[in-house]
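ingest -> validate -> predict -> emit
validate: passed (alphabet ok, no gaps, 154 aa)
predict: started
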Amino acid sequence: MDPPLVVISVAPKCYSHRIIEETGEFVINVPTMEIVKQTLFCGRISGAKCDKFKEASLTALQAKKVKAPIIKECVAHLECKLVKSVAIGDHTLFIGKVLTAYVNEGVFDEKFDVKKVKPIFHMGGDDFVTLSPKVVTPPRPRKSELKRKNVINN
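emit:
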């Protein structure tokens, strides 16, 4: 709590891993069921090979305290400064100090209004859930389409 810290796990082969190491900062954007398909797309495609914002029809906006962008379509944002990185297995844990956190107007009053927000949680693979028993599996981009664009994460 003091200071507020978060931990994310990123594979070294990912483009975002390199960017976090180089800049020493990152943003955690909180997506909802409204953009679950775009969330899966962004998790499967390398930003080194395409403009994820353009391809997923998402809007990049200037963050308040860091250079990394926020995603307009997400309902909340945590802007973080890297405190420490720890290599564990095939991933790196990036520990970030939350510099500022904010949410869209009307979706948070002590807690998220889950009837309005429907935050998503990744269950592994292509599956996501929200705060309901329904599991949502958005369609994956076709491999032939990704190979043609040369944007598959290896």
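The longest helix spans residues 15-23.
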